[in-house]
Amino acid sequence: MIIEGLLRFARNDGTGNYTYRNKLNQIVTTSDGSHTIYVPELDEHYHSIHGAVQESDFIFIKSGFEFCNANPLNILEVGFGTGLNALLTAIRSMKGKREVNYTSIEKYPIDEKTIISLNHYQFAGEAGKEIFNLIHSSPWNINVNICENFNLTKTEGDLTIKPPQGQYDLIYFDAFGPDKQPEMWTKEIFSSIASVTKTNGVFVTYSAKGEVKRNLRACGFEVSHLPGPPGKRQITRAVKI
Ligand SMILES: C[S@@+](CC[C@H](N)C(=O)[O-])C[C@H]1O[C@@H](n2cnc3c(N)ncnc32)[C@H](O)[C@@H]1O
User: Fold this and answer.
1) Which H or E run includes 135?
2) In this structure, which CATH number among 3.40.50.620, 3.10.20.70, 3.40.50.2300, 3.40.50.150 belongs to the domain 50-240?
3) Which residues lie closer than 8 Å to 198 by C-beta, 6 or more apart?
């Protein structure tokens, strides 16, 4: 099923520079029934078409949130997008009574019409809809308590221009793929991420590309690959030495 909505998104002009433009985007239903967004300019989806919620849960929750021992847990996400990772993390932190401070960086916040078309809350249990609404209605660039144990700061900004601030136990690296957005997967970017990752902090991402792993190693991470969720052979988890 495809629903169309308005998305203010970026266009790659072929030089690696992105410019704003208004564009019709498509909400696509993935194999587990959850929605993702398709970006025609990049020919890229926000999540795996084999299951958006399944992918997010496997990579960021099971391989990151559950692997990292820190409590309280300071998370930095690159690419807030639909807020799916934030939603699943909020639910887990609430259920597990684990305090989470979640900071997310997003260059192109999605518009309200698209947000209200997304069905992610249906996969997040009883409190899903309320937390989904609170996450999306919370103001940008301010720390907000969303629910018990979950504090959120959505930061509007461009990671390639403005390095992240703070110190984090866990990094959810969820930019568009290295083939579509190579400027997000460089040593320079990983070096700025390394500088805000605590020793023994954990970095998780869906890409297992060789160059990504080499760049992470060069920036002080011990890198391992794990079997991926359906449709993805491997993913990467790295620990800051
Ligand atoms: C794969 S999608 C995000 C998935 C998101 N975590 C979700 O669950 O919907 C990648 C996101 O990175 C954002 N992004 C792209 N370039 C960026 C940049 N330079 N700085 C910050 N965010 C960026 C995109 O706008 C998009 O929302």
Assistant:
1) helix 128-137
2) 3.40.50.150
3) 70, 74, 167, 168, 169, 240
CA of 238 to the centre of ligand 1 (A): 20
Shortest CA distance to 44 belongs to which of 92, 11, 74, 76? 11
Could you tell me if 205 and 235 are in contact, meaning their C-beta atoms sit under 8 angstroms apart?
Answer: yes
Please give the structure tokens belonging to residue 210. 């060789």
Task: Kindly give the distance from the C-alpha atom of residue 235 to the centroid of ligand 1, in angstroms, as a whole number.
Answer: 18
pLDDT band at 175 (very low <50, low <70, confident <90, very high): very high
Q: What confidence tens digit (pLDDT) does each residue in 115-162 have?
A: 999 999 999 999 999 999 999 999 999 999 999 999 999 999 999 999
Nearest CA residue ID for atom 19, ligand 1: 158
What pTM was computed for the model? 0.92
Q: Which of 176, 183, 186 to mutate to test the pocket of ligand 1 (most atoms within 8 A of CB)?
A: 176
237 is written with which tokens? 């988890």
Going from N- to C-terminal start, the domains of the chain cover: 50-240
The single-letter code of the amino acid at 45 is H
Q: Taking the CB of residue 4, how many other CB atoms lie within 10 A of it?
A: 12
pLDDT band for position 87 (cuts 50, 70, 90): very high
- Atom index in ligand 1 nearest the CA of residue 77 equals 6
Q: What's the pLDDT band for 92 if we cut at 50, 70, 90? A: very high
